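Students often ask why we bother encoding 3D structure as a string. The short answer is that it lets us treat folding as translation between two languages. Here is a chain of 458 residues written in the first language.
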Amino acid sequence: MAQYQTFPDAVGDSLTLDKLKALHLPELAGKSFLDVGCNEGFFCGFAHFQGAARVLGIDQSAAFVERARKRFPGCEFRQQDWSRLPDERFDVILLASALHYADDQPALLEALVDRLTDDGVLVVELGIVSSQRAEWRRVKRGIDHRLFPSMPMLRKVLSSHAWKWMGPSVTQAGDPVARHVVHVSRRRPVAYLLMQPPGFGKSSLASGLFPKAGVPVVSGDHVLSQAAQGKAATTPRLKALLDEHYSPYRIDAVVRKLFEQDMAEDLVSLWLHGHAGGDVAFDAYVPGEHQGRVEQLLLARGYLPVQLGWQRAGPAPMPAARAAEQGEAFYLSLAGGGAVAPAPYRGPAAGNVDEIALEGDRLTIRGWAVDETGALPGAFSVRIGRRTVDIHGFERQLRPDVQRHLGLSHALVGFRLLVERPGIRALGELDRQFRVVAGTRQVLLSGVPARAIRGTGA
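And here it is in the second language, the structure alphabet:
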């Protein structure tokens, strides 16, 4: 039998070492490797040399298989053809100088891709005829005629897979068609990631681009809203976090807290619900330091994550706290700027709680308060049972009614306080120890009339 592969002790028709260099094989250490049409096992021997965890070569020639076993006893070889491929998956499969022998070449390629692991690669060395048409061309070789594809035909055959032309292979004496190397992998669904901060135009970009391509868009804001309302299936711990912290006005803060509490996997599962298996775009803010984690989770679920990055066009909006601070400062700067300045406030520190509401696990308290100068105090404390909560960050509100009643120079004396996890399930549980105190002088605000109470358990 003629010598085909070339070894130091046997010169064959194939420039095997040069071909090995042209195949652009991945690192094989720890991987499983299959050579279909292995001949005397040169490439299997290389895989074993690199430390592959599993090496198998198959060939229909009993003589070649026997020679391969003697040369590379650390590898496994079987006498069989590709009509009976091994019923297992491999990280790397090689089909070199053999595709043109198949009766149904597309079917063989499909069968080999089917034997790949999720991240596996099929390395194919094949002849490609020069043609602008998608065709199989019958080419005369030395001893027979065989069909070879054009590049447009190869694109058509491999259209359902991810593949790349790696370059030319080694030209051998008598080749009627130039040889090329392509790598073929399973096509993963693509997850397009728009994870920029609020105000970057994510929704505008997503709605203008992906529907035209038939790619569904998942809005992170919407799915979190649905989950918070119990309208979307999610994990108990994510639902508990949303019950405690969700607000449509501070979704970015909720998302940050979610990642801080290691719920990235819960969030990705929520995004993917109903979309598994196909391309999808995610319009969802993710803090920069956690974006890599999202990509890893999507890779683990079989997706190819593609992150879209861009610079924000135009000036960024002020952070909410800065806008509130500057707006209030401007408003107060106008006090007393009219034709007739109001007289300074000379009354006592005072205030009132006008409304209390319990929504989920958050107690909201609304009212007004002034200190001896007629200004809104900068801090409050709320006593519920034996627990006292100090509140320094709160929403300031205009109260023109109080301004008129007390003859103040401005109306910015209203407040809205939030008490997270107040420790009650219904407002009826508030006892006589409930107090709201304003300012450093501990001004006790007026008692809460029954009409001020609303919400769960009122």
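Translate back mentally: The mean pLDDT is 89. Keep this in mind for the problem set.
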